[in-house]
Design a protein that fits this description.
It is built from eleven helices and 18 strands. Helix 4 packs across helix 5.
Length: about 350
């Protein structure tokens, strides 16, 4: 038996329960978790903004040690440190054939499987976003694990599984920030803090962090922000004032709210680029008129998982970490146990802190 945070149903509170994990079958790996990040996407699964089969063990950002492998698994072995990949590419669908593995049509098929059972009543459990990282141990498909970078503690490496890949990819793959450009980052949570660091790595000349909380300014500046704006109705005007009345070259929205997306778009210069990373609900409708779309010539694009290929991007991120350009610890504002996850959700709703990290 292992302890896990179980979502019994959408809209229900998480329950800390014992679960029974089977031994890994062919093509599967069992991992003892070292740490798991608490991401806003997990919160979105609990409230129905995103949907997965339930009951489920949530958690999709994690790292740990391989404790056993099933038949046919050769790329990792007992004792290897691994990072969990919640969106493994199938390599066969149309998106994968185009090299756009972050849009793989079959990436989340594993979330519909039964991977474990509750110890108390024997009920079936689904693996959240494929990997069920909110547990002491998990069993995943072999393509859901990647070797952890050498020299990076596993508790830090957990953040590579979502926040860092997403934030780094938003800057380097989606927005393609060039040296000397100006950048605004909306939302200073875990992904936003990673995005700020990525903008600094890209050589942005001015990096403006925007958040509703004045208390996050120190966090933002430590991550690379040169300026800080407390979100208000005048945010776009303030950002233009910080950029010679032009607006930034690039805005990255990490919140997923209609008003924030619209403000991010308005904060860019004519011809600027806005990348939307935040996941919002269907009720969040963003509107534009045809004339402004023509006149401003701006680009608005979505960004899934940072438009990243984890197998290719993890070694790049590892080099930035070893060189001291990327500080994973700067994302973490709280280290908690499994039973601290509901409070971490409350903090996200209240706009407090950066990334909460479950340490096992």
């Amino acid at each position: 038996m292992v302890r896990a945070a179980v979502l019994p149903a959408v809209g229900s509170p998480l329950e800390i329960a014992d679960i029974d994990l089977p031994e890994p079958g062919p093509g599967q790996v069992r991992v003892k978790l070292a740490a798991a990040g608490v991401c806003h996407s997990d919160l979105s699964l609990t409230n129905g903004t995103m949907r997965v089969p339930v009951p489920a063990v949530l958690g999709h950002e994690g790292a740990g040690t391989v404790v056993s492998v099933g038949e046919g698994v050769t790329h990792v072995a007992l004792g290897d440190g691994v990072v969990l990949n919640w969106a493994p590419a199938c390599g066969k669908c149309h998106a994968c054939s185009l090299g756009e593995v972050w849009l793989c049509a079959d990436a989340l098929t594993g979330a519909g499987s039964v991977y474990a059972r509750r110890s108390d009543d024997g009920s079936d459990l689904h693996p959240g976003l494929n990997v069920a990282a909110f547990a002491e141990e998990t069993v995943v498909a072999a393509n859901c694990v990647l070797r952890a970078p050498e020299g990076v503690p596993l508790t830090d490496a957990a953040l590579l599984g979502c926040a860092v890949l997403t934030g780094y990819g938003a800057v380097h793959h989606s927005a393609r920030v060039r040296e000397g450009e100006t950048v605004a980052v909306f939302g200073v949570g875990g992904v936003g803090l990673a995005t700020l660091q990525a903008a600094r790595i890209a050589g942005a000349s001015k990096i403006i962090a925007v958040d509703v909380s004045p208390e996050k300014e120190e966090l933002a500046r430590k991550a690379g922000a040169t300026d800080y704006v407390v979100a208000s109705e005048t945010t776009a005007r303030e950002i233009r004032g910080l950029t010679g009345k032009q607006g930034v070259d690039v805005a990255v929205e990490c919140v997923g709210r209609a008003v924030t997306i619209r403000t991010a778009w308005e904060s860019t210069r004519r011809g600027g680029r806005t990348t939307v990373v935040g996941i919002g609900g269907k009720d969040q409708q963003v509107t534009f008129n045809a004339l402004e779309l023509f006149h401003f010539g701006r680009t608005l694009s979505g960004c899934v998982y940072g438009n990243s290929d984890p197998a290719k991007d993890l070694p790049v991120l590892a080099e930035h970490i070893r060189a001291g350009r990327l500080d994973l610890s700067a994302l973490v504002t709280e280290r908690i146990a499994l039973d601290g996850i509901p409070a971490a959700f409350d903090n996200m709703v209240a706009g407090k802190g950066g990334r909460a990290l479950v340490v096992f």
